[in-house]
Design a protein that fits this description.
alpha/beta; about 20% strand; binds 8-iodo-guanine; Rossmann fold; 5-stranded mixed β-barrel; 9 strands
């Protein structure tokens, strides 16, 4: 089980003011809400996550969930084998969630009971950074999962692949990420270690389930445009294997909340310039459909084994 690894940085000019009490000047310089540190339980983003968690837990009639899973492009059917549906809510019924404008993203939140009696929150309504709602909207799913009691955050996505070893339709374990959004879901003096962000324990379990699985470094870009071939060569040179528009900001938020993080990408297209073909969203949807049975079984088995008591 991972623990939140926060280090209080030495801060010479720390004032006696508590968290959340940010002074504003007459000109309205700093917005106190926007500036409240994200590790303060009274920070409005955490309170909104608690309200969303309450709505979900009440609808499901459960006290907490054990694990949460965000479904990315190509993964919308992958929750089918996790267990029995207990509750399903439209994104609009849960505080802070929005229906996704993207075809291939489901737009609902589900609570599922596994055959072992544990509960999984399935988030089919991810907010992407490119929607322009800000980092708090992006992190809201993860914060809601943490507020609902989930100790493990499973992040799935569809992405571009930089290696011909991972053709479209290949699931790849995320071993690490490069956050190229220029943003963070955290603010204030909230310093969080990112070593071993993507749980070695969960990756081991996944490779036990499917020994063919490869690992890769995922680069999150802001999007919504895809990359140029020159940008893909740049990403390859700095060590990226996978490129997409989600996951890294959410993983940071999950680590900050003390959750164990598991990331898995479905390569739905070769990145720009790697293949002769231009990129299309239709290609992304088709690769997801073709891989659906394999990735649904994989996800269910990784979740089942990760929740099983250590023997
Ligand atoms: I699915 O090739 C999917 N998402 N940035 N590049 C980026 N995001 C993606 C890609 C891709 N494919």
């Amino acid at each position: 089980m991972s623990t939140p690894r926060e280090t209080e940085q030495p801060d010479d000019d720390q004032t006696t003011e508590g968290f959340g009490h940010v002074t504003t000047d007459a000109a309205g310089g700093q917005d106190p809400v926007a500036a409240a540190p994200t590790n303060d339980p009274t920070c409005p983003v955490n309170q909104q996550a608690s309200r969303a968690a309450d709505a979900l837990l009440t609808a499901a009639g459960v006290e907490r969930v054990d694990l949460a899973c965000t479904l990315g492009s190509g993964w919308s059917g992958a929750a089918g084998q996790l267990g029995e549906l207990v509750a399903e809510l439209d994104a609009e019924q849960v505080p802070g969630f929005h229906t996704s404008p993207v075809p291939g993203h489901s737009g609902s939140l589900k609570v599922i009971r596994t055959s072992a009696g544990q509960h999984v929150l399935v988030i089919g309504a991810r907010t992407h950074y490119y929607e322009g709602r800000g980092v708090d909207a992006v992190a809201h799913g993860v914060r809601t999962a943490a507020a609902a009691g989930a100790r493990t955050m499973v992040l799935t996505n569809g992405c571009g692949g930089l290696s011909p070893l991972n053709p479209p339709g290949t699931p790849v374990l995320i071993s690490d990420h490069i956050n190229l959004t220029g943003a963070s879901p955290l603010r204030g003096a909230h310093f969080v270690d990112m070593t071993d962000l993507y749980s070695p324990r969960m990756r081991r379990i996944a490779r036990e389930v499917d020994p063919q699985l490869r690992e890769g470094v995922y680069a999150q870009l802001p999007g919504p445009h895809y990359e140029t071939p020159a940008e893909i060569r740049y990403l390859a040179a700095v060590g990226a294997d996978l490129v997409g528009m989600s996951t890294a900001l959410e993983a940071i938020s999950a680590r900050a909340a003390g959750m164990e993080v598991f990331g898995i990408s479905l390569v739905t297209n070769l990145a720009a310039g790697i293949s002769e073909e231009p990129l299309s969203h239709e290609e992304v949807i088709e690769a997801g459909q073709a891989a659906a049975p394999r990735i649904a079984g994989l996800l269910a088995e990784v979740v089942r084994r990760s929740l099983a008591p250590a023997s």
